[in-house]
Write a structure and sequence with these properties.
Elements (H helix, E strand, L loop, with lengths): L17 E4 L4 H5 L6 H13 L4 E3 L20 H11 L4 E6 L6 H9 L4 E7 L7 H9 L3 E7 L6 H14 L3 E5 L7 H14 L4 E4 L7 H10 L4 E4 L13 H10 L8 H12 L11 H9 L6 H11 L3 H10 L8 H16 L3
Parallel strand pairs: 1-2, 1-8, 2-3, 3-4, 4-5, 5-6, 6-7, 7-8
Helix pairs in contact: 2-3, 2-10, 6-7, 7-8, 9-10, 11-13, 12-13, 12-14, 13-14
The chain binds the ligand CC[C@H](O)CC(=O)C(=O)O and manganese (II) ion (MN).
């Protein structure tokens, strides 16, 4: 399959990378959490046939995210998880859980459906709230991942301390998560290195493409020692989306880095099954670019666009203000209040 010479310099070619496909979870943000069971079945089946090791399925904000605050799911996520488990033979289904949004009860329920992985996500400086959930996930026999969101907001040393906490609670892998797509390649390198130097467990990377750096950052992460990588077919994810899985698989194949994923099959499912369900192509629009520029949560984009329409504002002004407030995941309600304040200021400004 590999068509030509490999550019191996700098990357270890004997590395094996484990890919987690997130289009059915992070991609849920991009389609307003409107997945149907039929869509999930056809995507999961095709990912399984392409031999993708892990497929994450949950509301975009993790288990139990379906709410007025984060957006209501069209289909109960447990139904989606069950449907995906029933059609997968090679791929394992994973879930995302943000302690406080999802609870141990939701984790137990998902485990009963036959998942193989749970990723426990916290803000980058709040790893301590993951202890119980990581411990329970381990008791359930799941591959357990600590997922440190908004990693651009912590310097490498602090990030490594937080990762170490997750490892001490039992995490099998810890991820650097560039939720805002704000990290630059050298900052990814520094962060991944800080983790690989202080942890005994593998390190992962989850990128967003708001600054068009998802692929570059992912390669920097791999070069710095990350061996667990997230991708989304057709970039289907929050903001400008994630590292595009089918492209990543092809690039890694050219580099001689093993993923076990069938290059043609992952391309075909991207083109034939996922592309038709996109509401619009995952482009870097001025809105998503601002997310990376201002360091704002990628999943805030559609909320900010709605608030901009409601208050007659430019979504970029709202997102810049949210960036100044250093809002973290879970603070979606701030978007409407910030927009209301900006609109008030605009009305009251002297003409
Ligand atoms: C709100 C959860 C979030 O979408 C998780 C994630 O994928 C990220 O932080 O990038
Ligand atoms: Mn994400």
């Amino acid at each position: 399959m590999n068509p030509g010479p490999r550019e191996e310099e700098g990357l270890k070619t004997n590395q094996r990378i484990t890919i987690t496909e997130v289009a059915l979870r992070d991609g849920s943000h991009a389609i307003n959490h409107q997945y149907t069971a039929d869509q999930v079945i056809s995507i999961a089946k095709a990912l399984d046939e392409a031999n993708v090791p892990y497929i994450e399925i949950s509301h975009g904000d993790g288990l139990a995210g379906s709410s007025l605050q984060y957006g209501l799911s069209r289909t109960n996520e447990m139904e989606l998880i069950e449907a995906a488990v029933s059609v997968c033979t090679a791929s394992k289904i994973g879930v995302l859980l943000l302690p406080g949004i999802g609870t141990i009860r939701h984790l137990n329920e998902a485990a009963k459906l036959g998942i193989g992985m749970a990723r426990i996500a916290t803000h980058v400086t709040e790893a301590d709230i993951s202890a119980q959930h990581i411990a329970r996930s381990k008791e359930l026999g799941l591959h357990t991942v600590g997922f440190l969101m908004m990693s651009h907001m912590a310097p490498p040393r602090l990030l490594a301390e937080q990762a170490k906490l997750m490892e001490s609670y039992g995490a099998d892998t810890v991820y650097v998560v560039d939720s805002a797509g704000a990290l630059l390649p050298h900052q990814v390198t520094e962060r991944i290195r800080a983790l690989t130097q202080s942890l005994s467990v593998p390190v992962g990377f989850h990128g967003h493409n708001n600054l068009s750096l998802a692929m570059g950052n992912t390669l920097a992460a791999i070069e710095a020692g990350a061996t667990w990588i997230d991708g989304s077919v057709r970039c289907l994810g929050a903001g400008a989306g994630n590292t595009q899985t089918e492209v990543l698989v092809a690039v890694l194949d050219r580099l001689g880095i093993e993923t076990g994923i069938d290059v043609y099959k992952i391309m075909d499912l991207a083109e034939e099954i996922v592309a038709p369900i996109l509401l619009k192509p995952q482009e870097i629009t001025r809105g998503s670019l601002i997310l990376g520029y201002a360091g704002v949560y990628s999943s805030f984009l559609l909320h900010a666009e709605r608030a901009a329409e409601k208050f007659g504002l430019d979504a970029r002004d709202i997102l810049l203000e949210i960036g100044r407030h250093k809002a973290v995941g879970g603070q979606e309600d701030m978007i409407m209040s910030v927009a209301a304040e900006l609109a008030k200021g605009k009305r009251e400004a002297p003409v």
